[in-house]
Design goal:
This protein is an alpha/beta fold and 341 residues long. The chain has two domains: 26-103 and 235-318, D-Maltodextrin-Binding Protein, domain 2, CATH 3.40.190; 128-223, Periplasmic binding protein-like II (D-Maltodextrin-Binding Protein, domain 2, 3-Layer(aba) Sandwich), CATH 3.40.190. It has helices at 2-19, 26-34, 60-73, 89-94, 109-114, 156-167, 180-188, 199-207, 236-254, 262-268, 272-277, 283-288, 294-302, 305-313; strands at 37-42, 50-51, 57-58, 79-84, 100-101, 117-126, 128-133, 148-152, 173-177, 194-198, 215-217, 225-232. The strands form four sheets. A five-stranded mixed beta sheet has the order 9-8-10-7-11, sandwiched between helices. Strands 4-1-5 form a three-stranded parallel beta sheet. Strand 2 (50-51) and strand 3 form a beta hairpin.
């Protein structure tokens, strides 16, 4: 029977491993000791991160940073934003200058395997496109034969553009800039015939121009650009927190939990999934070493995923970007939360 005793011991050990409480991890400990989350964001593009007239950062990425601060501190103000260019963002994260990067950063294999970083959940689906002035008379990208194209240094868009024009044997002249605002200014000044970057960012750039109607974002898409938060490797507890925080924002929309009804849902819902998400039963927060009401606090502060999208990209905003693949999976999109249980 020694084999049975060995099997039983292994089972007990496995069960103990399952129920062992999670530890906070060095990044969460450091954030708590500092009293502030340091979040890397874009240097400025409407919809994701752009200062308003008071200098307050607005956009989906900025709000995701605030929501993470709420999950940790129950205080959306306990976040410090660091605007980073495409060429400096990953270096800043790897060096410890920031705790997390919510910055229109495409998840790719080489970034995941060579930078010492990890990407968490995809929270936005996009694709590479091109924007041109209407007077250029271009309806397809292949017509940009010999065109000068503005690009952003350190992005996947540099390679995507080069690969496409090489594949159709059409020459083009790249003009590379460090920041999006520099490329936008060059485009408007006539230094470039087109601007190549992700379509959502083109929509944000166009919305900030003096005459948005003068510009067309061509309908073709040339890549998959899934955005995810990036973190340093080696801190699994911090990865778990950022990962499941992002899923919780999506799950809230799936369950129909909004800023307006979260309090009532927490008080009256008999749905076990809702009670679990909103912290009526505490196991989700306990597993992450944070307040059991963390997801409830987040939704009350920034809303669910759909509210975030509508606030920064919806039809009432200057960006006015249809949800498309950023719809929930139940509405024909790609946005999907893993089970929070």
């Amino acid at each position: 029977m020694s084999w049975f005793r060995g099997l039983a011991a292994a089972a007990v050990a496995a069960y103990a491993a399952i129920i062992t409480p999670a530890v906070a991890g060095p990044t969460l400990d450091a954030v708590r000791a500092r009293g502030t989350l340091v979040c890397g964001i874009h240097t400025g593009v409407a919809g994701f991160a752009l200062p308003d007239s008071r200098g307050v950062w607005q956009g989906m990425d900025a709000d995701l940073c605030r929501g993470l601060a709420v999950a940790i501190f129950n205080d959306a103000s306990k976040v410090r934003f660091v605007g980073l260019s495409s060429s400096t963002r990953f270096t800043a994260l790897g060096s410890g200058e920031i705790d997390v990067l919510f910055r229109t950063s495409t998840q790719t294999m080489l970034r995941d395997t060579t930078l010492g970083l990890r990407h968490a959940v995809t929270y936005f689906y996009d694709g590479h496109g091109f924007m041109v002035r209407n007077t250029l008379g271009v309806s397809r990208v292949a017509e940009l034969n010999g065109a000068t194209i503005c690009l952003i240094q350190g992005t996947t868009n540099e390679q995507v553009t080069a690969d496409y024009f090489r594949s159709i044997n059409v020459p083009f002249r790249p003009v590379v800039f460090e920041r999006t605002d520099q490329a936008s200014e060059a485009l408007q000044a006539g230094r470039c015939d087109a601007f190549g970057t992700d379509a959502s960012q083109l929509a944000g750039v166009r919305s900030s121009m003096p005459r948005p109607a003068d510009w067309t974002i061509l309908t073709e898409r040339f890549s998959k650009e899934p955005y995810g938060a990036y973190l340093r490797r080696g801190d699994e507890e911090w990865f778990d927190l950022v990962r499941w925080y992002t899923y919780a924002v999506i799950e809230a929309e799936e369950q129909g939990i909004t800023r307006a009804n979260a309090e009532e849902q927490r008080r009256t819902s008999v749905n076990p999934n809702t009670r679990r998400l909103l912290g009526v039963t505490p196991e989700l927060g306990q597993s992450l070493k944070i307040d059991p009401a963390w997801a409830y606090n987040v939704v009350r502060a920034i809303g669910n995923y759909g509210e975030l999208y509508d606030r920064h990209f919806g039809p009432q905003t200057p960006v006015n970007l249809p949800r498309g693949p950023n719809n929930l999976w139940t509405n024909g999109g790609l946005v999907y939360a893993l089970p929070l249980r």
